[in-house]
Amino acid sequence: MDSDTKAGLTLAAFLPYRLSVLSNTISGAIAARYDAAFGISIRQWRVMAVLGEGEALTATEIVARTAMDKVAVSRAVADLETRELIARAASTRDARQSVLSLTGQGREIYAEIAPMALDYEREVLAALSQTELETLTRLLDRLAGAASPDRPLW
Amino acid sequence: MDSDTKAGLTLAAFLPYRLSVLSNTISGAIAARYDAAFGISIRQWRVMAVLGEGEALTATEIVARTAMDKVAVSRAVADLETRELIARAASTRDARQSVLSLTGQGREIYAEIAPMALDYEREVLAALSQTELETLTRLLDRLAGAASPDRPLW
DNA sequence: ATGATTTAGTTTCAAATGTAACTAAATCGA
DNA sequence: TCGATTTAGTTACATTTGAAACTAAATCAT
User: Fold this and answer.
1) Measured between CB atoms, does B112 come within 8 Å of chain A?
2) Exposed/middle/buried for residue B66 (C-beta within 10 Å: 0-12, 13-18, 19+)
3) Which residues contact B58 (CB under 8 A, 6 or more apart)?
4) Beta strands in B67-106 (DSSP E)
5) Using one digit for the tens of pLDDT, what is the confidence trace for B131-153?
6) From start to end of chain B, where are the E strands?
7) pLDDT for A47-85, tens place per residue?
């Protein structure tokens, strides 16, 4: 029997590992920039990013749009509120929820970070042609569908 | 001026975000399985995975192959050693380092987890044809090259 | 209506992580 | 060859994170 006949797992070739390293490298590089400039964490940025799209949102809606859990959202929101980057308005229909939106200051910072993030994305994506980017997007969507934990298992 | 003209960042379409969610979904799904079965964390598994490839390695070599930092490796190694899944042998050439390898028990667990991980990978990759997988691999490599923080910046 | 359950969001506590400081051995340079 | 620097790995401390428990409001079922 060949002692080199292993389970066939080579970490460097294992897709989940490769995705993880790539994702951490990219997210880390962007986060390093806005953290250095504004002291904002990735999670805080995600909250700002969805609010920056325009709509005011409740915490639960932020959870749905950011793939963060509610505790993480609660904490990010609390920090951003303390720093007056987002504001909380009482909801008229449900006293448990508040409607969150960027403050003027929050919008200013958003307006600085968003182009920073997009620039970096462009920089990395410059390695791909337009067609390749479309292909990549399609394949990632397909994988996301296959990997999504909320698909029925039966 | 159009008040909807934002910085043009939509989180759901932002590649770094999409990669991050996909990566966490996939890694999380696999980790949930081996954590439930053996109480092993992602980082511990990565150390086992590179040792499972065959060669005995020093901590520094593990750092190089896993994209983990040395503190994380040190801690994962310490835990795995306590659980007697890896063993430490004094290095002959450098008294500061030890040479690490899986124990018999470690190899047994490795032999159970590796197929589990590969099965899940296969399951997800089933969403892609062989050609698409090759394309994806190529594109991810390309992105990794472009994103790699160790490339010269000047 | 009103008690039982669900939902929104927060708090608490333990575990995981990152950064910096540290120890000990190896290498470098005069 | 011996002091200065670098390297391997660990430890200590502060911060972040995750899970579970919790509070308060809404909805559901009778």
Assistant:
1) no
2) buried
3) B91, B97, B98, B99, B100
4) 86-90, 98-102
5) 999 999 999 999 999 987 554 43
6) 57-58, 86-90, 98-102
7) 999 999 999 999 999 999 999 999 999 999 999 999 999
User: What is the rounded distance in angstroms from the CA atom of residue A146 to the CA atom of residue B128?
Assistant: 10
Amino acid identity of residue B90, one-letter, is A
What is the C-alpha separation between A103 and A15, in angstroms, rounded? Answer: 41
CB contact B129 to A (< 8 Å): no
CB B27 within 7 Å, strand D = no
Interface of A with B in 134-153 (CB under 8 A): 135-137, 139-140, 142-149
Contact A92, A30 (CB under 8 A): no
Q: Give the integer Cα–Cα distance in Å for B48 and A134.
A: 36
Contacts of A123 in chain B (CB under 8 A): 146
SS3 A89: strand
Find, among A56, A29, A149, A80, the residue nearest to B21 by Cα.
A149
Task: Tell if B94 CB is < 7 Å from nucleic strand D.
Answer: yes
> pTM of the full predicted structure?
0.92
Beta partners for A57? Answer: A100
A23 is written with which tokens? 């994702």
